[in-house]
Amino acid sequence: MKSIFNRILFAGAAAAICFSCTNLDETLYSDISSETHEMTETELAATIAPVYGSLRDVCWAWFGSFDLNDMSSDVWGVPNRIGIGWGDLYIPMHKHQFNSEMDFFSVSWYNNYAGVNACNKMLANEAITANETVAAQIRTFRVLYYYNLFSAFRNIPLDTQYEHEDGWLPEQSKPEDTFDWMVSELLEVADLCPKSAELGKMNYYAAHMLLAKLYLNHNAWFKDDSDKTWYQKALDEINIVISGPFSLSNTYSANFVESLAGNKEIIFGIPFEEKYAGGNYYANLWHHTAVRSRWGFSGWATNGGIVFPQFLDIYEEGDKRFDATWTGGVQYKADGTPIMYDGAPAEYKREIRSIDNPGCYPFEGYALVKYQILSGPKGTSYDDVPYYRLSEAYYIKAECLLRLNKDLNTAAELVTAVRKRAFDSIEDATVTAEELMGGSVYQYGHRENTAKINEPDNWIITHEGGDDIELGGLLDEYAREFVAEGHRRDCLIRFNIKGTNMNVYCGKSWFCKDAEKDRHSDLFPIPQDALNGNPKLKQNPGFVYVVDNK
C-alpha cells in the first residue's frame, strides 16, 4: 500500500525541500494511538500538528505562495540587482514567462500536497475521526490546501484517501468536480468547527471565510461572469464571518507585529516562533545589509525586493498605510544619524530602472517594512502572519454588493470603516460607491529605463491607465490594504477590463511586463517533475510539455 504523498509528489519532493526555510522533517506520527484508544486533547493536539504546520511551508517556504502570488503581480518583484545578483529565478515570474521547471511551482505543488497528505493520514485514523470537532478542522484544512492548488494549477489530482494499491497513480480531476467537492466538504464541516478563534487553529468563521472565497472566485476561475448568484452565495457566507467576535484593530500596523495573540481583527492566522516555526523572511529579502542598523537587525539581508513606482503612485495623500508599509529616502540609525554605505548616505530611491535590462542598482526601489522588524538576528522571521482578517471580510462583502448592484451605500460604508484608521480626517477616509465602481488610478503600461547608471536615460513607456477596469476603485482599495499578504494575483484575475472577458492580470502591462493576448497565464504550469513522474497528468493549456529524456 502506498500513500498519496508518494504518488503525487514524485521526484519534486526532494528538490522542493531544498528551498524551504522551515523544517519539513516534522513527525507525521506513523505510530499514533490505536483506533480503539480514546485520545486525550493533548494527544490529539500533538498528533494533528503536521496538519497545521504544513501551512507555514505553503506560505513562507522559499518560493512560497505569498511570493508566488505577489511576484507575478503588479506590486513588487525581484530584479537583476546589478553588482549583487538575483533575477534569474524571478524575472520570468514578473514577465509571465512561466515554465514548468521553475522552482516556484514545484515548491507550491509539493508543500500543498504535503498538507493534503497529512490531512488524509489523520483522517484515516478512527481515534481521530471519532472526535467530530477535530475531524471537521482537519477536513477544512484539507480544503484550504486544495484551494491553493486549485487557484494555482486548476487541473489537479483530487484524492481523499491515504493509502492505495501498489502501482496506483492519480488522475487529474475535472475542475468542476474539484470545485464541487471543496464546496460540499465545507458545507458538511464548517458548522462543526469551534467558534473560538485561536491563532493557527481552524475555526467556524475561517471555514465560512474559505467557502465565501470559493464562491467569490468561481466566475473568474471558470471565465464566465453571467451567473451572479455566486456572489450572493459569497455574501451569505461572509455575513456569517462578520457576525463573529471580531473587530478592526485601531491601527493598520497592529496586524503585522511579532505576536498576533489576542488581535481581534485576525479571523485566522499562522503562528511563528523562534525555535520551531520560523519562516517570514521579508526583512532578509528586502533590505540592504547596511540598512539593518536602522533596527539593530543582525540577520542576513539580500537587498532583493523592489516595489514598482506605478504601485506606489496609487496611494492617496495622507494614507498612513504608505509609511506603515514602505520606506524610502535616506535611512537613519535609531540615534538619528544617517546610515552610511560606501562613503555616502544609504538612500532607497523611488525610481527603478528595469527588471533585467540592465536591472536595478543596489539602492533603487523602496523597501517593505510592513511586518515588524526586530533587533537581533530575528528580523521578521518569527512574526505571526495574518491569513484572514476582518478587513478582508468587509471588502468581500462590499465587492459582492457592488457586483450584485445592491445596497451600494453599505458597500461604501464597509470600505470606509477600514480606511478610517489610515487617515486623520473622516472626510479623507470616506469613499463613495461611485468611486469604488469607477476606474483604477493605477497608471498601467510598460515603464522601463534601459540605460545604465552612467548613460542617458532611455525610457520605454506605454500608457494604458486603469480607467477601463471594472470596479477599479475597489481593486485599488484591495491593493493598498493587503499588499504583501499574498492576495494580489487572485484580485487581478477576478477584476476584468470593461467590455471584455480579459482580466487585469493578463490584459494589462506594468513595469517590464507586457499585456498578453490570452488568459492562459491565469494558471501556472504543472511542475515538470510531477509530469515526469506520472504519465496520467497533462500540462495546462498554453505551456509546453517537456519530454523527460532521462
Task: Provide a brief overview of the structure.
With 550 residues, the protein is mainly α.
Describe the 3D structure:
The protein is mostly helical. It has a domain at 1-193 and 517-550: Serine Threonine Protein Phosphatase 5, Tetratricopeptide repeat, CATH 1.25.40.390. It is 39% helix and 7% strand. It is built from 23 helices and 15 strands. It has helices at 4-8, 12-17, 41-47, 49-60, 65-71, 91-95, 103-123, 126-129, 132-153, 175-189, 204-221, 229-242, 282-286, 309-312, 320-325, 390-404, 408-419, 426-429, 433-437, 472-482, 488-494, 504-507, 528-533; strands at 2-3, 76-77, 163-164, 266-270, 306-307, 326-327, 329-330, 340-341, 344-345, 347-348, 367-368, 385-389, 445-449, 459-461, 510-511. A three-stranded mixed sheet has the order 14-13-15, with no helix packed on it. The chain has a two-stranded antiparallel ribbon with strand order 1-3. The protein has a two-stranded antiparallel sheet with strand order 2-5. Strand 8 and strand 9 form a beta hairpin. The protein is globular, with a radius of gyration of 23 Å. The relative contact order is 0.14. Residues 10-36 have low confidence and may be disordered.
